Amino acid sequence: MDTLAPHKPIAPLDDATVRFCGDSGDGMQLAGTQFTNTSALAGNDVATFPDFPAEIRAPRGTKAGVSGFQVHFSSNDIYTPGDTVDALVAMNPAALVTNLEDLRDGGVLIINKDSFDKKGLEQAGYKSNPLEDGSLSHYSMHPVEMTKLNRLAVEGFGLTQKEADLCRNFFAMGLVFWLYDRSLEPTLRFIAQKFGKRPEVAEANTASLRAGYHYGETVEAINTQYHVAAAKLPPGKYRNIMGNTALAYGLLAAAKLSGKRLFLGAYPITPASDILHELANHKNFDVLTFQAEDEIAAITSAIGASFAGEMAVTASSGPGIALKAEGMGLAVMTELPLLIISVQRGGPSTGLPTKTEQADLMQALYGRNGECPLPVIAASGPADCFHAAQEAWRIAARFMTPVILLTDGYIANGSEPWRIPQLSELRPTEITHPAPTDNGDAFLPYLRNERLARPWAVPGTPGLMHRIGGLEKQDVTGNVSYDPLNHQHMVDTRARKVALVADDIPMQTVDGPASGDLLVVSWGGTYGACATAVHKVQHHGGSVAHCHLRYLNPLPKNLGEILGNYKQILVPELNLGQLRMLLRATYLVDAIGHNKVQGKPFSVGELVEKIEHLLST
Amino acid sequence: MSIETPLPVLKPTDFASDQDVRWCPGCGDYSILAQMKKVLPTLGVPREKTVFISGIGCSSRFPYYMNTYGVHSIHGRAPAVATGLKCVRPDLQVWVITGDGDGLSIGGNHLMHAIRRNLDINIVLFNNRIYGLTKGQYSPTSPLGQKTKSTPMGAIDNPLHPLSIAIGCEATFVARSIDTNINHLGETLKRAAEHPGASFVEVYQNCNVFNDGAWDYAKDRDTKLDTTLELQHGKPLLFGKLREKGIRLNGMNPEVVELGKGITEDDLLFHDERSPEPSLAYLLSRMRYEDGFPEPIGVFRCVDAPRYDALINGQIEEATQKRGQGDLEALFNSGDTWTVE
Ligand SMILES: Cc1ncc(C[n+]2csc(CCOP(=O)(O)OP(=O)(O)O)c2C)c(N)n1
Ligand code: SF4
After folding, report:
1. Which of B77, B119, B309, B329 to mutate to test the interface with A (most CBs of A within 10 A)?
2. What's the alpha-carbon Rg for chain A, to the nearest Å?
3. I need a surface site. Which of A137, A231, A342, A447 has the fewest CB within 10 A?
4. Each residue's pLDDT tens digit, B190-233
């Protein structure tokens, strides 16, 4: 044992939240990801919130260029990345000024002192140096000469000064790893794998990481180390997963289990692009990824693949979904199965491309011309994207209809532990295509089954030649028809078909008492914040239950009944009240909204406050 | 392209669907439909392996009239629909039917990309220099000054020339024909079908309701030999009633010359549809009647190049060979994992 390092006490904690923030070139996302993986491997439940600037490279040191990554890790089940931060790592003044308000009083503040020079302070708008003016006194502040110490640590590896400074995030990581009693092993493995071809870089990063760790161990200033014990998650094998990755895996599983090739037609857009990237990496799963010339080509190419009898998917975000609307109408009219993934972000128009919002529910439900219903479902968290993707495909294939799957930027980029399923646990979707005929009778492309789904006849099959398209079709024959009564009949039929999906989905459940004073109704990515807030209030004895909707069209059959069992209904949404409007219109209930559009998820605290306020009135 | 020989020999009528054809009487579309029905049985591709994809417009009603598989899609997007279809099913013979408005206005982007990807599809653009279905607005190929419902004082946008665009996108097969020149049209469609890769065929089509006579100069018995020039691979560019005129290159510029008086066929430009260099094909695509040139019909360009549908499936094979058939459980369990007892 190092005699110079006095053994410092380790304080047990139930959970902790750490945020790394710095310039977008500082490698904060990597630091956060490594810390998350390490914590997950240590058995914690984790939830993350990466927060990127919209500019790829804003001028260094400016507030516009600040990039952050928040990790919440716990020995309990958690559903959110945490409201307030227990430890903040700020690599420069701009990062400090934009993130400090989330650090709790008394929280640990680790600062790269070397960047608090005149220029840095000016860029952040500081009139005086906060490290010296006493304004940070109510935090446990640790200014560290990170740039200098890191340069010393990597001396001798032959790096340029610029390259040396790029390792600084590993120094910061090392220090935080020490602070939370984390093993360096997973990150050392990562370094070996990632920089294996450049040994000098691998060695330098290793040296930085160790230097940061040892700094924590030896320096007098930081007195307490913390330890968050493993969580009691349900038994199984786990890995940490991001929403977009889980979604891509869900698509792969759905294709495989239904014996289909997977075709993704996509046009890059934040925050949906990673789905394309992930699938493009798995061509050996018989996956075709087509980077189309635009969003309309993306969806129409997918329609072509669907007509051809394969599993067709398109993925985008708000503005791209807007462009796809006409294609969705065609898919509704031609009654072809198709998955449309909408990873919501702040809108309207280009809006807040890197920030999250839930404001595209109405777009998903109604953003098309004509009476054009299609099933809409929403994933509730990163790991749930895996299941949601399969469920969306199951509905699409069984009902011969396009389906919209909603996620959002927060789910897409956030991560959490995922219990790795066995293939045998997954529900395969059985698909049948009509067999060839040689009887010479015309094939009837709109002859329907008990679910009102039409047959999926695949080109190349003898005897089933047929034509479909966007013009209204006569039922059964599929011939073009302008007959007024036929149009009414077809509009009604398509609507009835989508309504029938309600018979094929589970009844809605609530978490909490089956009746009471207040029901919180949520959908999509706000699941975690709502569930946690409701649990908290329940814990304090509040008569409140939580109803989280996965199915937004059609709504579960028993939802109206559930809503009737509570005195008040609260609908928190990251929009101005879209689900609330739907519930009010459908069930004539006096639902109350809690709405926020700041590009940020809900904090648990604000929801608890709102619920308690309603319960007290 | 997959050529299979079905046992029963098919007739043109086998390719006709039971739907009434609803184009205006006298529309040039009929003739194109008739030639298509004639050509398809000669290709040896079974009906069920033939798919017609169209956008929106009079011409795009085409798939309804064919007893094959078909999609009448949305305005301008047929090339994109065809792309998805052909990528997952390279064994199908896919035709894209489009109009000058459909293909060059709203669908210009998709047309360009389908061509540059060299997907193995056959694109037939019916050019009537007008919007037919929406009843007579000018189109991207309408000449400057054309008066239409939407351009009462005359069109002020420069027209696009479909073949120049296709060649600009490095099309591997480019041809032009005329609705009334039925033998030539049939031959051209056949060659397009047989070309492995994207084939692009412009057909001069008469809309006798909204733009009657737009191509009369190229169709009229009396003038057509002077105003058109039939391209033949390896042959000099000759035209005229007595084939007494030809096209010669003067530096980089084409010029019309009369044979005789010291000018022989050997001085003329010889057509090489297989030239890897597309500049001469482009030059041919720029020869216009109003500039005093005969307009070439026939195959401008026919070269081999890798096909997108083959490449995309080739990458899947390559990935599978390198990494083995995808194993979901192995993928799920990749990276750092831990077990909770
Ligand atoms: C999105 C959209 N915009 C506009 C229209 C209306 N529209 C239908 S056909 C057409 C033009 C067709 O012109 P062209 O391609 O030249 O075909 P033609 O009818 O002459 O064969 C237009 C503008 C439409 N159907 N969809
Ligand atoms: S409007 Fe013109 S193009 Fe359309 S069917 Fe009639 S004649 Fe043909």
Report:
1. B77
2. 27
3. A137
4. 999 999 999 999 999 999 999 999 999 999 999 999 999 999 99
Enumerate residues 556 to 615 of chain A having a beta carbon within 8 A of any beta carbon in chain B. Answer: none
Nearest protein CA to atom 2 of ligand 1, as residue: B75
**CATH 3.40.920.10 residue window(s) in chain A:** 10-228
Residues 6+ apart with CB under 8 A from B31: B179, B180, B182, B185
The dihedral region occupied by A67, where left means phi > 0, alpha psi between -120 and 50, and beta the remainder, is beta
Total count of domains within chain B: 1
Per-residue pLDDT of chain B (341 residues; tens, 9 = 90+): 455 554 568 899 999 999 999 999 999 999 999 999 999 999 999 999 999 999 999 999 999 999 999 999 999 999 999 999 999 999 999 999 999 999 999 999 999 999 999 999 999 999 999 999 999 999 999 999 999 999 999 999 999 999 999 999 999 999 999 999 999 999 999 999 999 999 999 999 999 999 999 999 999 999 999 999 999 999 999 999 999 999 999 999 999 999 998 999 999 999 999 999 999 999 999 999 999 999 999 999 999 999 999 999 999 999 999 999 999 999 999 988 999 98
Is B265 within a domain? no
Residue B59 phi/psi, 5-degree rounding, is -60, -30
Class of domain A10-228: alpha beta
| Mutation choice for ligand 1 from B102, B125, B142, CB with most ligand atoms inside 8 A | B102
Q: Report the pLDDT averaged over residues A445-466.
A: 98
The answer to whether the CB of A94 falls within 8 A of the CB of A126 is no
Which helix (H) or strand (E) covers residue A169, if one does?
Answer: helix A168-179
Q: What's the start-to-end Cα distance of chain B, in Å? A: 57
Q: DSSP assignment, residue A457?
A: P
Reduced to 3 states (helix: H, G, I; strand: E, B; else coil), residue A454 is coil
pLDDT above 50 (res A2): no
Q: Is residue B189 part of a domain?
A: yes
Q: Show residues of chain B in contact with A402, CB under 8 Å.
A: none
- Quickly state the pLDDT bin for A439 (edges 50, 70, 90): confident
Residue pair A604/A47 in contact (Cβ under 8 Å)? The answer is no
Residue B139 lies in a domain: yes
Asked if residues A349 and A299 have their Cβ atoms less than 8 Å apart, the reply is: no
pLDDT reported for residue A57: 76
Structure tokens at B298: 């026939």
CB contact under 8 A, A307 and B81: yes
B321 within domain boundaries: no
A window 200-239, beta carbon within 8 A of B:
230, 232-239
Q: Range of B34's domain?
A: 12-214+303-310
The hierarchical CATH code for the domain A516-616 is 3.40.50.920
**Alpha-carbon gap, residue A469 to A310, rounded angstroms:** 18
CATH 3.40.50.970 fits A239-421, yes or no: yes
Q: What are the two backbone dihedrals, phi and then psi, of residue B87, each rounded to the nearest 5 degrees? A: -65, -45
Asked if B71 lies within 8 A of A186 by C-beta distance, the reply is no
Q: Is the CB of B128 under 6 A from ligand 2?
A: yes
ipTM of the complex in this document: 0.96
From A14's Cα to the closest Cα of chain B, the distance in A is 18
The residue contributing the CA closest to ligand 2 atom 1 is B132
- Closest-CA distance, A357 to chain B, in angstroms, reads 29
Q: Do B325 and A284 touch (CB under 8 A)?
A: yes
> Which residues on B lie below 8 Å from A291 (Cβ)?
none
Query: Which of B56, B68, B74 has the most A C-beta neighbours within 10 Å, making it the best mutation to test the interface with A?
Result: B74
Distance from CA of A602 to the nearest CA of B (A): 30
Which of B21, B27, B64, B75, when mutated, tests ligand 1's pocket best, judged by the most ligand atoms within 8 Å of its CB?
A: B75
Q: Considering chain A, tell me which residue range(s) the CATH 3.40.50.970 domain(s) occupy.
A: 239-421
Taking contacts as CB-CB distances below 8 angstroms, the residues of chain B near A283 are 315-316, 318-320
Dist. CA A43–CA A74, nearest whole Å: 9
Please provide the average confidence, as pLDDT, over all residues in chain B.
Answer: 96
